[in-house]
Prior knowledge:
CATH superfamily of the domain at 171-232: Tetratricopeptide repeat domain
Largest sheet: none
Structural class: mainly alpha
CATH topology of the domain at 171-232: Serine Threonine Protein Phosphatase 5, Tetratricopeptide repeat
Radius of gyration: 22 Å
Mean pLDDT: 88
CATH architecture of the domain at 171-232: Alpha Horseshoe
Helix content: over 70%
Order of helices and strands: HHHHHHHHHHHHH
Number of helices: 13
Shape: elongated
Amino acid sequence: MNSLQDDMLSEARGYFINGNYKMAEPILNQMLLQNTRNPEVYQMLATIFYDKGQFSKAIKTFRRALEIDPTYTDASVGLSIILNDLGKYDEGKQVFLDAQSQLDKKSGKQDPFVDEKLASKHEELADLYYQYKRYNEALEQLLKAQKLSSRKAEITMRISEVNVQLGQTDRAIKDLKALIREYPHLIPARLKLGAIYYNSNNIAEATEQWENILIRDPQHPEALRYLKMAQAAGITSIDL
């Protein structure tokens, strides 16, 4: 890429990041006329097409980005999201798995930066599956993210939410208790565990978790609110 194209890409990227697609699109189209082979150009254009509801053009353009670089995860996730929106769940899942497989072959060894980026993409797909109440697929993506990421605690808490939706409350409780043993001061985990206990009508266990939080932080607003509800017993469930 020459210096002029570098400048054009930088300008288009700035507009794109700020959500100014109207300014970014003509610059990106001009780069296509110059026969660019930068997958980022195609990925940004595809995202713009998707935003405009031009799904066929978006799919074609995302696929072009992946033809240039099969490991380009931003394009694979974008394409997966469109395919999922169109109800093509299996095809969307396969697109991302293919990209990850190509990346594994290319890298040959684990790179923490790449692992975190892949983990974040698995989490994005998990969010999408969760949104459509496809909890088994969401769990599968989160488990993959957990293996790749250093953010084990955060992802474990998300996994517990999915397990609750799957009716696997015991599994969620077990995971959160193990997490708390490892990180005793992790207040969000205690809040979540207390909520699961409360929703399972285990009021004493829920109260124990919230009181434990108040030992560490006597003014913690959520713990105080939950304890008050438990004492009043006027609310039958708490959103996780």
